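Morning, I've got a small favour to ask if you have a moment. I've been staring at a protein lately and its backbone has me curious. You're getting the sequence in one-letter code plus the fold written as tokens. I've dropped the whole record in just underneath, so have a look:
=====
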Amino acid sequence: MAEKKYSCPVEFTLDRIGGKWKSVILWWLRGGRKRFGELMQLMPQISQKVLTTQLRELECDGLIERQVFAESPPRVEYLLTAHGETLKPIMELMCEWGKANAKDHQFSSIQRDL
């Protein structure tokens, strides 16, 4: 399969973190590891199927890691990789931009506490 060609670095970046949920997932993981259920609670509008797909894609791109613990019941946690950690400054800037420009929009109580 031929390697995808990008017209600019922004296109490459958006290919990795674009879409409705990937940046939001990365935002919540920037504070530390989370379990699947925790992510579902933080993003109540996402379906389980979509969250699973987005997590797999982020893992495939090397931005997050999925850790499975040999416990009963099994425990799975997601966290940023070192590569994913490099996106933290971008996430912070996106948050600041959103706060500055979403004055007429309401955020959930979780998001107001950012």
Q: What stands out?
A: The mean pLDDT is 90.
